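sorry for the late reply, my laptop died twice this morning and i had to redo everyting from scratch. anyway the thing you sent over, i finally got around to it. pasting the sequence first so we're on the same page, its 318 residues, then the predicted structure underneath. double check i copied it right bc i was rushing
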Amino acid sequence: MATKVILDVDTGTDDAVALMLAALHPDIDLIAATSVSGNVPLPITTENTLRVFDHIGLNVPVYAGAAAPLVRADFPVPRDQPMPGKTNVHGTYLDIPPATSKAQGTSAIEFLIETYRATTDEIVLVPVGPLTNIAAALIAEPRLVNLIPRIIIMGGAHDTGNRTATAEFNIWADPEAARVVFASGIENVTLVPLDATHKALVSLADCEALRALGTPAATATATFVERRIRGYDEGQPMSRLGAAPVHDALCIAAVVDPSIITTRELFVDVETHGELTVGMTVIDVASRLKREPNAHVAFDADERRFVDMLLRCFAAAH
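ok and here's the structure:
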């Protein structure tokens, strides 16, 4: 039986690949996508999400969520801008045709609350952007802690940040929301930080193989990942040349095959203060805090199995 999933996104290039993998993989039943402000402002993340589903010809409901962080009135500002002459790995609008479909009238936060209240099925929640929608829903309906059976989060970093020296963008963009989620008491939490996503890179050769498949999902993925590779080659020392991480899609791969990532049970918290450390995920690898683990944290991933999953899934997506 396919695993039911809700995917919470701030759609740029890697979210787009995650959306296509979730929508097209036979082992996933994508119930809906919820959008949040993050990589780009909310109207663009919502439009990009709709574009993806229109491009692959699937009607998946999209619910627009939070346009600003939980506490910080206007953060992150200024948003990341590429250096002159450099490639922004996300850009603004995705390089596929504008959407003809429309978002649902219900807000993402209301949708999450009502869906988990009403369902008798297990629905895995996969947030791959800032955690604002999830935290807002938990605050509005504390019983969600016991109604969400599993949550897989793309965010955070232990070794090296990508927004500051210590912080990964999704957590940094709304650290208070992230702290709410990790402190909530949801029992089955998996965190997929940069440490794992940078172990599963997609290369230019992989993009050639994807493009050769000729399906809408495969060719779009090749276009998105080639943009990511240009950006990483120009200024991201964490990646090898000619390859880039597709962070969010790895979380969907882990829904299909949990063994594609290697995790440890650890205590995780988020720094919400500190001039140099705001947004840092505090991952207690040595149990210094003497706190019970609250997450399965991924530190490794199987690159070849991840790429092969993309190729297999998108080859069949005619």
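Residues 67 and 73 are 10 Å apart (CA to CA).
thats about all i looked at so far, will dig more tmrw
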